[in-house]
Amino acid sequence: MTAGWVIALAAGIAVLAWIVGAPLAAARRRRALAARSLTEDERRAMQAWLPFARGLPVPLHDRLGRLTAIFIGEKEFTGCGGLTVTPEMKVAIAAQACLLVLGRNTHVYDRLRSVLVYPSQFVVPGQWHDEHGVVTEESRVLAGESWDVSRVILSWEDVDSRGAPGEAYNVVIHEFAHYLDHESGGAPWIAGTAARRRWFRLLDAELEALRARADAGARTFLDPYAAEDRGEFFAVASEAFFEEPAALAREMPALYRALADIYRLDPAAW
Ligand SMILES: [Zn+2]
C-alpha cells in the first residue's frame, strides 16, 4: 500500500469515526443535561410561568422539567439591545417552548442554536411577500421572529405580557410553533401523503371560514391575525391550544383534535 493510500484510509476512518461519534457524543451530552434536575429557583420560575404545570400528570410534569433543563443547557441565550438575560428569563422561555414538544419527547428543537432576546419589540429590515406574491421592501417592528431553524428572536416585553386567562397571547408559543412549522414544511410530525393532505385540507377550510367571518366583521374565536396565511393560522391556533384549550375544543373541535394529534397532548384535560 502506498503512503497516499495509507493517508486516504486514515482520513476515511477519521471521518467515519466523526460521523458515528458526533451524534453519540451529542446524545451523551443530552442525557447528562436531562439528568441535571432544575434548581429550586428554576423550578419556582417554571411554576410561575406555567401555572397549570402543577396540574400536569406527574410523568409529563417531570418530562417538562427534563426538557427545560436540556433546552437551557444546549441553547445559547443572547441579550440584545443592552438586555441581560437572567436565569428566570431562560426558564420562562425554555419551559414554554418545551411545552410544544412535551408530547414528542425526542425533539428539543435540535437544530436551534440560539435564542436572541430584545428588551422590547425590534425592527427588522427586509423584503416581505404578501399572499399575491407582491414583494415590498420595508422595515417591520416585530415581537418575535423565527424564519430560520438556527435561531429564534423574542421581545422580552412581549414574553412578559402574555395574555391574561381568556386571552390567548403567547409570543413564545407563537414563535416556536412557527419554528416547528418551518422545519416540517407546514405539517409538523405529520408523515405520509394522505395524512398531510388531510391536514392541509382542514387547515385551509378553517382558514377560509375564519377569513369569511373576519371580512364580514363577525366575532372570531382566534385572533383575526390568524387569517394572514397558513403559517400564522397554525401559530395563532397553537397559542389557543395551550392557553385556552377547553374553549378551543368547544369552538373549533376538529382543529383541536388535529392539534392534539400533532402535539400528542390533550391540554383541555389538564
Ligand atoms: Zn407569526
How would you describe this protein?
With 270 residues, the chain is α/β, with parallel strands linked by helices. It has a domain at 184-270: Collagenase (Catalytic Domain), CATH 3.40.390.10. Helix content is 54%, strand content 13%. It is built from ten helices and six strands. A four-stranded mixed beta sheet has the order 1-2-6-5. α4 (87-99) links the parallel β1 and β2. α2 (40-49) crosses α4 (87-99) and α6 (171-183) crosses α8. The N and C termini lie far apart (67 Å). The model has no long low-confidence stretch (mean pLDDT 87). Bound molecules: zinc ion.
Write a brief structural summary:
By secondary structure, this protein is an alpha/beta fold. The protein is built from ten helices and six strands; from the N terminus they run αααβαβββββαααααα. The longest helix is centred in the N-terminal third of the chain and has 33 residues.
CATH architecture of the domain at 184-270: 3-Layer(aba) Sandwich
CATH topology of the domain at 184-270: Collagenase (Catalytic Domain)
Strand runs, count: 6
Q: Largest sheet, described in full? A: 4 strands, mixed
Give the termini separation. 67 Å
Structural class: alpha/beta
Give unreliable regions as ranges.
Answer: none
Fourth-tier CATH superfamily name of the domain at 184-270: Collagenase (Catalytic Domain)
Topology as H/E string?
HHHEHEEEEEHHHHHH
Output the radius of gyration: 21 Å
Averaged pLDDT, please? 87
For this structure, what is the CATH class of the domain at 184-270?
Alpha Beta
Q: What small molecules does the structure contain?
A: zinc ion
How much of the residues is beta strand, in percent? 5-15%
Our count of helices gives: 10
